[in-house]
Amino acid sequence: MSSTPPIATTSPIVDSLVKSVIADMSVRLLEESRHIRDVLEREIAELGGDAQLLELLGASIEGNVDPVFHVLQHGITADHLHAPAAAMEYARRLAQHAIPVTALVRAYRLGQSTLLDRIFDNIAGSSIEPTLALQVSHRIVSISSIYIDWISEQVVTAYQVEHERWLANRNNVRATRIRELLSGQHTTDDSQASNAIGYQLAQHHCAAVLWIDHPNSDLDGLPLLEQLAHRISGTLDAEPTPLFVAVDRLSAWIWIPLGHGATRLDLPRVRGVLTGNDLAEVRVALGTSQFGSKGFRTSHIQALRTRSMAMLADGVRAVTSYDDPGLAISSLVSADPVRAREWIRSVLGPLADNSESAFRLRETLRAFFAHQSGHKATAAELHLHYNTVKYRIKSAEQMLGHPIADNRFDVEQALVLHSWIGSTPNPT
């Protein structure tokens, strides 16, 4: 790596003002990092679509903004810095996901301009005299550009090294064919496609996403995930061999071959294999049984949506299935969780609160709807007294501000959505 150019000297008053402006920004480090992440997610489509990658993106941004602030405040040269671990890992993970390096470079340039806009707003709102403000802004641009050039060189190198290593892996060649199949870009028939990926497409399949819920871990989780894939297949009587594709070192896609019959995975048995301390952080998202090459894609898409919902919900479910009550319809609105949560709050009111009493009433009301408004059946399921159920339903109606029958459909859908994505925070 070439050494960075020396930072040009300026007047002591400019240096002092730079320190003052950045000190004010540093207090809001998390807020500024989150703002940059929101911009990158919105403007660079390639960076979205994977919850763990987005979480690591956030860690990478914070890991870069913090040293930028230190460089600006203390005049540190990049030669004395170490590239943030999260930034290097994020670059490697993008290479593993075959996301173009141009997206990575653009992210750094867009991230810099976004941060500078916020800094300029801060300067504009200060009492700094205009001529000095221009000098302060120029100084900040110059120093931050030096840092961005330096860190970009580091992360691009890390990306390229990982990209070459990943492509050299034999399994990734098959993964490329599978990605073509999933995108509908393959030009061969199902028989030829089956030969190319070493997996029979003319049958039923159940796709799944396996991942380790510890994105900053140094663990290579692929051996553990591959072993788990075989254990899930082992819940079937025929114990078929699953198709396993590594996505990165902490996640994988699998397809369980179910044959030509109406075989389905037994969810209780699948949940049963995820026991033991070694699997405490492993998560499974399942699609449904589908047939042929179209079903191969459909079940996979379902598994991806299921994973997104599992991570959007409480994040602790070991196994989540597309067949879980309410998940499919909830996934349709999960692309805009902010508006969905606002709607939940507008329908449920205080019943959407994050409190034990509201939680009990929501669970009672959901069971009540599931049993066609039968108080006795609801009481039996929840192991409650009949009168307790009646009292809770009445309490729920008081929170709603109207009888359930007045708006039953919206209330029922809002309860389902709340169980997956929650609602806006309690009003203060």
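Next protein, fold it too.
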Amino acid sequence: MPYLNKVEVMGNLGKDPELRYLPNGKATTPLSIAYTEKWRDRETNDLRERIEWFTAVLYDKQAETVCKYMKKGDCIFVIGKFQSRIYKDRQQIERTAHEIIVAEMQIIHTRQPSVAAPTGLPDYL
């Protein structure tokens, strides 16, 4: 039986990306992505808004590219798989993190007018 685990999210970065390196030297960056949904309340006609936050994890060239060209508030589109992992926080309490492990990404919009758009990027961008 075939299985599918695919997530697509487009939204704005909640903070500046920070490049980190794993013990094996592999570049990585976690992103906090805000998806905003807006609608009108049928009864009051008031504009309503709900923000859903996603954590996406990028590796290698994708991580380096995002850290080089993007800042808080910029828009990104990611495609990947949903993954959960268990970890212990500072108080040694077991927690569960839910993350999108990014396979493909595209920079949609950056707010820095002085930053030239990247050229000659790999196909996965």
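About the second fold: The chain has a mean pLDDT of 91.
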